[in-house]
Write a structure and sequence with these properties.
By secondary structure, the chain is of the alpha/beta class. The chain contains twelve helices and twelve strands. The protein is globular and about 65 Å long.
């Protein structure tokens, strides 16, 4: 199903592009202006996405958070040539299955790093100054200044990063601006690379847990990172310290986190949870809702207009380059 790389791809110069998640309107218009057909349907999820792909037979599928599994890949054959993840992580896409079907999976690394870093830092500040509780009590008609006057402050505290790629580096930059100390565990970086951003490397993940006041997780999902923040990690954390997770829900053992909240006074700010809804709006029940020490956002880390525009520009570049040359940029398989 996948012609050789040196194929002229003349039949793909005017390709059909199916976009099923929020995507820059300006980028869509530029794709159309280049002669391609754009089908935009953010309601296509699961079985509906399979039906949509089978009906439209796009050459390129563009997704953000939507899952792409074997059924969707099969529905696109033989026309489907490329799946673009409008973001960096690709754990919501059957990458191996795409490879066996001759479909390239490509991503847009680093384009949402600032947006995710801003949210992670916002969660740190919201926990430290108890901003959410302030608002909730005010809206309930309660004035409780006494309860909120003993917040710790971030200056001079230690931020620990588990993973220091594009997002981690942006967070380190902001933490240093707040006069925080930064320690990093990242087995893929040399100590000199970590020192170059003003941080200090530590040799093991539990060293981050034991020596940080605030911990922020920035690793990809997958088998290698599944529940790396679990019972041993929480046991090593300082009582009352903060955990921020804007990466993937699979990285954190949620039951162990709730236990740490109850036994060690841990606070958490999370943007990702197990069993998140695929729909954009609707009812949702989760054990975190009962925990006052856990602040939750609705998986919005990469969802700013700036990030959307940056990702749209990169995806646009990838689509146009594909149409002009047949080459696929940023492949991961």
């Amino acid at each position: 199903h996948f012609p050789p790389e040196n194929n002229s791809f003349s039949s793909f110069i005017m390709a059909k592009i199916l976009i099923v998640d929020q995507f820059s309107q300006e980028a869509q218009e530029q794709i159309r202006a280049a002669g391609h057909t754009v089908v935009y349907d953010t309601a296509a999820k699961g079985a509906k996405l399979t039906e949509k792909i089978a009906a439209e037979k796009p050459a390129v599928l563009v997704v953000r958070s939507t899952k792409v599994e074997a059924a969707q890949l099969d529905a696109g054959l033989p026309e489907l040539r490329m799946v673009i993840r409008a973001g960096s992580g690709v754990d919501t896409i059957d990458v191996a299955g795409a490879k066996t079907r001759g479909i390239k999976v490509c991503n847009c690394p680093g384009k949402n790093a600032v947006a995710v870093a801003e949210l992670a830092f916002g969660l740190m500040m919201a926990i430290d100054r108890r901003i959410v509780e302030n608002v909730v009590q005010f809206r309930a008609g309660q004035w409780n200044k006494e309860a909120f006057t003993e917040c710790r402050g971030l200056k001079g505290r230690t931020l620990g990063l588990v993973g220091c790629g594009n997002i981690g580096k942006e967070i380190a930059k902001r933490a240093i601006a707040f006069d925080m100390h930064v320690i990093v565990y990242d087995p893929f970086l040399q100590p000199a690379q970590i020192e170059a951003i003003g941080a200090r490397a530590v040799p093991a993940i539990l060293d981050v847990a034991a020596n940080a006041d605030v911990i922020s997780i920035h690793v990809p999902g997958g088998a290698a990172t599944k529940k790396i923040v679990g019972e041993a990690f929480f046991a090593a954390m300082r009582p009352g310290s903060y955990l921020i997770n804007t990466s993937r829900s699979s990285v954190v053992d949620e039951a162990a986190l709730i236990n740490a909240v109850h036994t060690k006074g841990i606070w958490a700010g999370v943007d990702v949870m197990d069993n998140e809804p695929q729909v954009k709006k609707g009812p949702f029940q989760h054990p975190f809702a009962a925990e006052e020490h856990i602040m939750v956002t609705h998986h919005i880390g990469a969802s700013t207009r700036q990030a959307e525009e940056a990702i749209g520009e990169e995806a646009l570049r990838m689509v146009l380059h594909f149409g002009q040359t047949g080459e696929m940029l940023n492949p991961v398989n």
